[in-house]
Specification:
The complex is a heterodimer of chains A (about 220) and B (about 400). Chain A is α+β, with helices and mostly antiparallel strands and about 220 residues long. Chain A is about 65% helix and about 10% strand. Chain A folds into two domains: about 10-125; about 130-225, 3-Layer(aba) Sandwich (Glutaredoxin), CATH 3.40.30. Chain A contains six helices and four strands, in the order H-H-H-E-H-E-H-E-E-H. Chain A has a four-stranded mixed beta sheet with strand order 2-1-3-4, with helices on both faces. Chain A is elongated and about 90 Å long. Chain A starts with 7 loop residues before the first helix and ends with a helix. With about 400 residues, chain B is α/β, with parallel strands linked by helices. An eight-stranded mixed beta sheet of chain B has the order 3-2-1-4-7-6-8-5, with helices on both faces. In chain B, helix 3 links the parallel strand 2 (about 75-80) and strand 3 (about 100). Chain B is globular and about 80 Å long. Chain B starts with a helix and ends in a 7-residue tail after the last helix. Classes of the chains: A alpha+beta (about 220), B alpha/beta (about 400). The interface between A and B is large, with 45 and 46 residues.
């Protein structure tokens, strides 16, 4: 029985090449993750400028009460839509990315702060400029919330149907640990579970379906 | 990062490792690919043709064998009729140089053993009735037997009559196999001498006891047995045999389940060779590696299926909560589209495409992208699903010991 030799050389060469490919692949994955965050950051910068502009307009409201309202209401829905789009990209990154770049969490906090600013402005706009829309603050969680995808879908329906009359702000419940503003809102509105909706200061715990939301819109805005 | 993600990376790394191994082997041996020793002495050879109801194909096969580029006095042909109920025997008897044996229906292995009893030549070749050899095929293979330890030689098989989509997929697969079979031969780890056109040294086949009728795949079983006794195999990359591969989906399905169950059955029978250095690259690498391959294929198949079904179900649930409103999606192409695994997907795809082009060129075929466009698409998209399915089903059947009817 002839003992067959094994081609050790080939195994080793192939092994070295494969390990190089593995390292390159992991590096590329990390690099890509960072690039995605950079992309989100550039989108956030654009949203922030609109936000700063809105802040300034609210200050100027005191000087020019008649002019400011018309200008503000024109641009506000547009700004809110852009922010919401960025928000869904941020949520998608958090949900699907395998290796998250560390810069992402700072980005998320920065985004959330801008988002809450807009929510506050929306409420002020409603008071001072007599607007007919509802502000919806939606608390979700990535930790354990089986109803959240359904709630998101229902809100998507509402946004499509009511357009400028539905200002929706989606907020990660768990950021309460890191951001004082989020913690304040949680305590202030007594939000303890997810999903929870706060529609114009009124709290709705648990899943609110599209039909129930339509009823709320009808009763609060007297529209069908 | 979850466990499933790590498994995905491991699966891709393993598949990439194997591909790089074969390509490295190719590059180191690229000058040897086409070189066969010129036969100093032309051995006498007998063709054994087991046939069961092959009245339509057997004439073409016999004519091609009888017109082979080889001295007529060194060429013998024996047809073993395995109890055919049609005119197979009548068609075979039309050729005066062909000996016809008859037996009650007992299967291919029994037919080959029956024919073996009447073989007086140094070499014996097997041929399926639905296949036929190229005119120069014998010249290319006979020289390989000059080395005493070579007990069997394998040809390069191509699919002929490429009409149905099933045959189109197999056309590409067989070309890829021509390349892989040569590499296996250089690595000394081939595990099957194919039915259509495999050549054996008669004395060795007799010594080890002929073919085994209890096996699902007697051609693979005898190869494992030859390896167990330390014999070598050899291959010629351009000794062509042409086969009429299964035309229908069920025909192909049954063939593959039988082949892959046969492989697993043989591995179980010869399990002492797994991971065993004594059996060279065959025992040490191929046998264990194939287990990993079956796992990889099964994992990729099930995870893709699971993910697709889960995504579809989630989509419908969400749609329900939207009161079935259809919102046209806004598609924005950006860096967010790529995934962390994109590098591995692309790299493996690149290796695959490169290997395909290499196989086509080494099989002396033309790529013909315009004409053969559908063959390549079918092979790239449908074949991976089919091969995973066949292996998974074969593995399940073997493990659950489903009864063998073929």
């Amino acid at each position: 029985m002839v003992k067959r030799k094994i081609s050790l050389e080939i195994y080793i060469i192939a092994g070295i090449i494969t390990i190089s490919v593995l390292i390159a692949g992991v590096y590329f994955g990390l690099f890509l993750s960072g690039e995605k965050v950079k992309f989100l950051e550039s989108e956030l910068a654009r949203v922030r400028i609109s936000g700063d502009d809105a802040t300034l307009q609210f200050v100027l409201l005191n000087f020019f009460p008649n002019e400011s309202c018309s200008i503000l209401e024109e641009r506000f829905y547009e700004i809110q839509m852009k922010t919401a789009k960025l928000g869904s990209k941020v949520e998608e990154y958090e949900r699907t990315e395998k290796i998250k770049a560390p810069e992402f969490y700072e980005l998320k906090k920065a985004y959330t702060i801008i988002l809450l600013n807009y929510w506050y402005y929306a409420k002020k706009l409603k008071e001072e400029c007599n607007q007919t829309f509802l502000t919806i603050l939606y608390f979700y969680s990535n930790v354990y919330c089986p109803d959240c995808p359904k709630q998101g879908a229902a809100l998507g329906y509402i946004k499509e149907k009511y357009r400028e009359k539905a200002m929706i702000f989606s907020l990660d419940f768990d950021l309460g640990k890191e951001l004082g503003s989020v913690k304040l809102l949680r305590l202030g509105y007594n939000v303890t579970i997810v999903p929870t909706l706060v529609v114009d200061d009124e709290r709705y715990e648990g899943l609110v379906t599209a039909d129930e939301l339509e009823k709320i819109f009808y009763s609060k805005l007297a529209i069908g | 990062m979850q466990v499933a993600d790590i498994v995905v990376v491991a699966v891709y790394v393993f598949m990439i490792y194997c591909s790089i191994l074969w390509l490295t082997l190719f590059f180191k041996n690229r000058k040897r690919i086409f070189s066969e020793p010129r036969p100093k002495k032309l051995h006498s050879i007998t063709f054994l043709l087991p046939a069961y109801n092959e009245e339509k194909k057997i004439s073409e096969c016999l004519e091609k064998i009888l017109s082979l580029n080889y001295p007529k006095e060194k060429l013998k042909v024996i047809v073993i009729d395995d109890g055919s109920t049609d005119n197979t025997v009548k068609m075979a008897r039309k050729y005066k140089d062909v000996k016809v044996l008859k037996q009650k229906h007992a299967g291919k292995a029994a037919a080959l053993n029956h024919g073996l009893k009447h073989v007086t030549t140094e070499l014996v070749a097997c041929m399926d009735a639905d296949s036929f050899p190229d005119a120069n095929y014998l010249y290319k293979l006979v020289g390989l037997f000059q080395k005493r330890e070579v007990a069997a030689a394998t040809p390069a098989i191509k699919v002929v009559n490429v009409d149905s989509w099933i045959r189109k997929i197999q056309w590409m697969e067989y070309l890829f196999q021509i390349f892989l079979r040569k590499l296996f031969s250089i690595f000394e780890c081939e595990y099957v001498v194919p039915g259509p056109g495999g050549i054996y040294r008669t004395s060795v086949v007799r010594e080890i006891g002929g073919w085994d009728g209890s096996s699902l795949t007697e051609d693979m079983e005898i190869t494992f047995r030859l390896r167990d006794r330390g014999y070598r195999l050899a291959n010629s990359i351009d000794a062509y045999t042409y086969t009429n591969a299964p035309k229908s989906f069920m025909g192909l399905w049954n063939q593959r389940i039988r082949w892959y169950r046969g492989y697993l059955e043989n591995v179980r029978r010869y399990s002492h060779m797994i991971g065993n250095l004594k059996y060279g690259n065959f025992g040490f690498f191929i046998l264990p590696a194939n287990f990993f391959w079956i796992f990889c294929l099964g994992f990729l198949l099930f995870s893709s299926l699971y993910n697709s079904i889960r995504d579809i179900v989630n989509y419908f649930i969400a749609w329900n909560y939207m009161n079935y409103l259809i919102i046209p999606p806004e598609i924005e192409v950006s860096v967010l589209w790529l995934s962390s695994f994109s590098f591995f997907h692309v790299f493996f795809l690149f290796l695959g495409l490169f290997s395909i082009c290499l196989s086509i060129s080494l099989s002396k075929e033309r790529i013909g992208l315009m004409k053969k466009f559908d063959r390549y698409l079918l092979f790239l998209f449908i074949y991976p699903i089919l091969i995973s399915l066949w292996w998974v089903v074969a593995a399940f059947c073997e493990v659950l010991r489903v009864s063998k009817k073929w």
